[in-house]
C-alpha cells in the first residue's frame, strides 16, 4: 500500500482521478484538487469527515481552506511520491464531497 | 466591530497578539500564526473548535494544515484589512490552542 506507484498502477489508479478533477502538482509527485462547497459549514463538514478517514488510515492530507473552498494535496512522504494510499484517500474524499 | 482598525486600536488590540506569536503578513493587512500540536488528531481537534467559533461569528480564517501544524491567516475582506473581529478570533484561537 505504501510502495511508490508503478507505471502500471498509475494508469489504473491515477487515470480515473485525473479525469475526475485531480491534477498532478508541478514539481512534485503529488496530486491536488480544489473542492468548492456552498459555504464554510459545508466545507468544514467535508474536512471533518475526511479527517476521520485520514486518521483511521494514518495517512494525512496537506490541505487549506478559505470559506467554501478546500484545496487538498496528497502524497506519501515515506516513499517521496504517490502511493496507493493517496489514490485510496482521493477516492474517499471524492465520495465524501458528494 | 468590522471597521478597519485605527492606529490606536492597533496598539491596544494587535500588540499583545504580536507578542504572542502572531505576525503581520508581508504585503497584506493581515496577521498569521503557526500552531504546532502533538499530532494530527490534536491539530484537527483545534481546527474543529475554532471552526465553530468562526461560523458563530461569521468570520472565517484562511488556514492550512499539514499533520500536526496549522497555519492561520486572519483578515477582514469586507474592510480590506484587519478589524476587531480578527483580534477577537485570534484571541479565541490562542485560548482554544491552549
From TrEMBL, chains A, B:
Record carries keyword Lyase: yes
Enzyme Commission number: 4.2.1.96
Ranges that cross the membrane: none
Domain of life: Bacteria
Recorded GO MF terms: 4-alpha-hydroxytetrahydrobiopterin dehydratase activity
InterPro entries on file: PCD_sf, Pterin_deHydtase
Keyword Lyase: yes
Keywords recorded for this protein, A-Z: Lyase
Enzyme class, UniProt record, top EC level: lyase
SUPFAM superfamilies registered for this protein in UniProt: PCD-like (SSF55248)
Reaction catalysis annotation: (4aS,6R)-4a-hydroxy-L-erythro-5,6,7,8-tetrahydrobiopterin = (6R)-L-erythro-6,7-dihydrobiopterin + H2O
Family in the record: Belongs to the pterin-4-alpha-carbinolamine dehydratase family.
Protein's UniProt name: Putative pterin-4-alpha-carbinolamine dehydratase
Organism expressing this protein natively: Roseovarius pelagicus
Biological classification of the source: Bacteria, Pseudomonadati, Pseudomonadota, Alphaproteobacteria, Rhodobacterales
